[in-house]
């Protein structure tokens, strides 16, 4: 109330001797206090301010005590004394005086202290005025400022809540934002209830703080006598401004919440697309009533929450559809594979521009094949949408069918590429197909634009297997290149073959080779069990995040109880394809060694080479080379070369200088038995070698 040091009364030397008219115009009275003789002179306007008649005042300052309460007088005396003591030129203060009718009113005074040349106070000249209107206006301004501040705070509630809800992707995210302690603080509420409308009922999904749940309200009908039900039923908010009103309007609910000390409450319907999807109740213990501004802010808050909730519900519906489609396209179960441990994993990526995880075209498959063989597939259809998933499902099925029909890996891949090309879609796919003979460990690998496989040894070391590849599926047929080279490798007992999609390897801004190196290190330091290793790899992918999906397949060959019979490998060799012929030779050499017939590898490779050459020279079309293991009284390795000609081979005399004609002679000399079988419009020339038992 004190306005010490104010400069409003810095009076000039030409201060008028009789300022009464000037002051009167400004509703002020003046005084002249002679400090030497103690006379306190006031003009007529000052008398009015103090509500004194001239005959009621004798010029003595103490006579003003009939109007100035004792406490106010002491405060003013102390103020003036301090101003004179510390050398101030002026002072100012608000004080209360008691009018003739006994009412108090605020008054303001300002005084200018005149001193002599020694600095001693000699005289005080000043003014007094009625400050009632001024303070009333000031109070109104303060109240308005407080209202404005409250409105700003309430508006901030909407902004803060909306900002927090902007990151909510699921319904649970929305609930977590509202249940969060800071969220309740922002809302200004003591307690919160939140429900979703489901089939004509309201299911309570959030309430807080702990201990505020009302038994029997977890699921309520919309026609029940509860404020949340009423808000949903009428699509209008329900504002309860006092405990008495709450008890009168909702007698069923009120007895259960009296311990929360609720003074008011607001129940808001959450409306989206012109229908109620939920309701929210905010309960207060420090608020009485709601101003129009309060109500508008809370209605805006409810609208913001409703929009976020609707967005989250639609997102979850889309995700359920996408996830269901994805799961339907992937194999429901992975078959048990005798002689191997298999683990598969799938992780959906966070697609760019999507609010959350989206469906993709990555897939894996394990295909049991006759003769103790198994096919392992990993692939990735371009895109992250339901169309990619649909294409993936069709491609997975036809690739499985081609493999089950007995086609070689190269033919399986070529036919799958033609199928995708003829599917009339703009999508292409990368794929890797590995066909493993678990009895021998021989694996044939075909790659269509996919990343290379990796092999982990029992000691934990891991290496990348470089496989020459062809174009992605769908593109090879379009560009007229259906050649898929076949790589052959040997998977020893305890070794693990790892196939994955590039989501496990690629990182933004990183080179693919660097990603493969990191993956190799991660595999080498991972657990031994294939399931634990698969979990570890997918956990790392989850921690890293990323836009792309991840599909993963691990196949570990066991060393015990593995079947020894039924091994079978195939290779197509086209006329003039020197690479295919070399790959066939490599396949034969690797398989013979893996099947325990390394001592016969030269003879078997020479005989197979002669049969392939005869088929290519004397027929039109490709030759299909098949190696298989037969068991019976003894163990045999059988070589078959199939061509499209029905003409049977015949022996010819080569002559002393002849360079041909010795093929069948070599076959007869080096094999234990051989023969010819008709097959469709063509034939198969076969031969068998007895393989000594391993010692």
What are the SSEs and their pairings?
Blueprint (H helix, E strand, L loop, with lengths): L19 H6 L2 E7 L4 E4 L1 H7 L19 H16 L4 E9 L5 E12 L5 E10 L1 H34 L5 H9 L1 H7 L3 E8 L2 E8 L10 E3 L5 H8 L3 E3 L2 H7 L4 H4 L6 E9 L2 E10 L7 H38 L10 E8 L14 E8 L3 E9 L4 H19 L4 H14 L6 E9 L4 E7 L5 E3 L5 E3 L10 H4 L7 E5 L5 E5 L11 H13 L5 H15 L5 E8 L10 E6 L4 H17 L6 H18 L4 E8 L5 E8 L19 H8 L2 E7 L2 E9 L5
Short summary:
This protein has 695 residues and is α+β, with helices and mostly antiparallel strands.
Key traits:
695 residues, disordered N terminus, 26 strands, five-stranded antiparallel β-sheet, six-stranded antiparallel β-sheet, single chain, 18 helices, alpha+beta
| Total number of helices | 18
Helix/strand structural class: alpha+beta
Strand order of the largest sheet: 8-7-6-11-10-9
Instruction: Please state the CA-atom Rg, rounded to the nearest Å.
Output: 48 Å
By DSSP, the count of extended strands is: 26
Shape: elongated
Intertermini distance: 111 Å
What summary fits the major beta sheet? Answer: 6 strands, antiparallel
The proportion of residues in beta strands is 25-35%
What helical percentage do the residues reach? 25-40%
- Model regions low in confidence, pLDDT < 50 over at least 5 residues: 1-12, 14-19, 352-357, 560-565, 655-660
Overall mean confidence score, pLDDT = 81
């Amino acid at each position: 109330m004190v306005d010490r040091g104010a400069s409003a009364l810095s009076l000039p030397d030409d201060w008028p001797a009789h300022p009464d008219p000037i002051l009167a115009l400004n509703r002020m009275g003046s005084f002249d206090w002679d400090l030497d003789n103690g006379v306190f002179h006031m003009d007529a306007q000052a008398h009015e301010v103090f509500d004194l008649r001239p005959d009621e005042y004798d010029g003595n300052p103490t006579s003003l005590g009939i109007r100035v309460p004792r406490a106010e007088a002491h405060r003013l005396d102390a103020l003036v004394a301090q101003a004179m003591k510390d050398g101030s030129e002026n002072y100012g203060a608000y004080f209360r005086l008691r009018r003739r009718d006994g009412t108090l009113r605020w008054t303001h005074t300002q005084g200018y202290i005149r001193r002599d040349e020694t600095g001693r106070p000699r005289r005080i000249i000043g003014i007094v005025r009625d400050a009632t209107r001024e303070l009333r206006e000031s109070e109104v301004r303060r109240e308005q400022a407080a209202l404005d501040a409250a409105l700003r705070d309430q508006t901030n509630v909407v902004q803060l809540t909306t900002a927090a809800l902007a990151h909510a992707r699921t319904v649970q995210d929305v609930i977590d934002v509202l249940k969060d302690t800071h969220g309740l603080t922002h809302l200004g509420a003591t307690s919160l209830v939140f429900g979703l409308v489901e089939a004509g009922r309201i299911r309570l999904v959030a309430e807080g703080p702990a201990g505020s749940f009302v038994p029997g309200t977890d699921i309520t009908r919309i026609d029940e006598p509860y404020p949340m039900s009423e808000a949903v039923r009428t699509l209008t908010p329900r504002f309860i401004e006092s405990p008495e009103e709450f008890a009168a309007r909702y007698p069923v609910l009120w007895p259960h919440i009296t311990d929360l000390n609720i003074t008011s409450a607001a129940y808001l319907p959450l409306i989206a697309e012109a229908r109620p999807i939920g309701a929210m109740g905010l309960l207060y213990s420090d608020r009485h009533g709601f101003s129009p501004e309060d109500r508008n802010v809370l209605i805006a808050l409810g609208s913001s929450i409703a929009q976020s909730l609707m967005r989250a519900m639609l997102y979850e519906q889309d995700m359920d559809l996408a996830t269901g489609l994805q799961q339907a396209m992937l194999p429901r179960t992975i078959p048990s594979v005798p002689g191997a441990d298999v683990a598969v994993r799938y992780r959906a990526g966070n697609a760019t521009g999507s609010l959350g995880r989206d469906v993709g075209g990555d897939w894996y498959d394990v295909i049991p094949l006759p003769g103790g063989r198994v096919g392992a597939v990993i692939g990735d259809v371009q895109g992250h949408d339901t169309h990619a998933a649909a294409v993936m499902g069709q491609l997975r099925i036809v690739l499985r069918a081609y493999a089950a029909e007995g086609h070689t890996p190269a033919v399986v891949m070529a036919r799958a590429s033609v199928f995708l090309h003829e599917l009339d879609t703009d999508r292409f796919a990368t794929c890797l197909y590995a066909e493993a003979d678990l009895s021998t460990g021989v694996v044939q690998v075909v790659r269509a634009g996919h990343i290379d496989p990796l092999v982990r040894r029992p000691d934990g070391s891991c290496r990348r297997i470089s496989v020459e590849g062809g174009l992605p599926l769908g593109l090879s047929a379009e560009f007229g290149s259906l050649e898929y080279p076949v790589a052959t490798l040997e998977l020893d007992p305890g070794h693990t073959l790892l196939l994955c999609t590039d989501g496990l390897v690629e990182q933004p801004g990183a080179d693919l080779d660097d990603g493969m190196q990191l993956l190799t290190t991660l595999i080498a330091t991972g657990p031994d069990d294939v399931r634990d290793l698969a979990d570890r790899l997918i956990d790392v992918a989850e921690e890293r995040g990323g836009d792309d999906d991840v599909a993963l397949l691990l196949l570990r060959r066991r060393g015990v109880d593995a079947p020894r019979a039924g091994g079978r490998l195939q290779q197509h060799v086209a006329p003039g394809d020197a690479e295919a012929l070399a790959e066939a030779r490599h396949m034969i050499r690797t398989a013979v060694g893996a099947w325990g017939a390394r001592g016969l590898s030269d003879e078997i490779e020479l005989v197979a080479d002669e049969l392939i050459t005869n088929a290519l020279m004397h027929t039109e079309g490709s030759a299909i080379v098949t190696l298989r293991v037969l068991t019976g009284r003894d163990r045999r390795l059988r070589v078959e070369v199939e061509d499209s000609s029905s003409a049977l081979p015949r022996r010819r005399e080569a002559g002393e200088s002849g360079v041909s004609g010795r093929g069948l002679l070599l076959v007869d000399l080096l094999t234990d038995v051989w023969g010819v079988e008709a097959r469709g419009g063509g034939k198969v020339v076969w031969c068998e070698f007895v393989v000594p038992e391993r010692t």
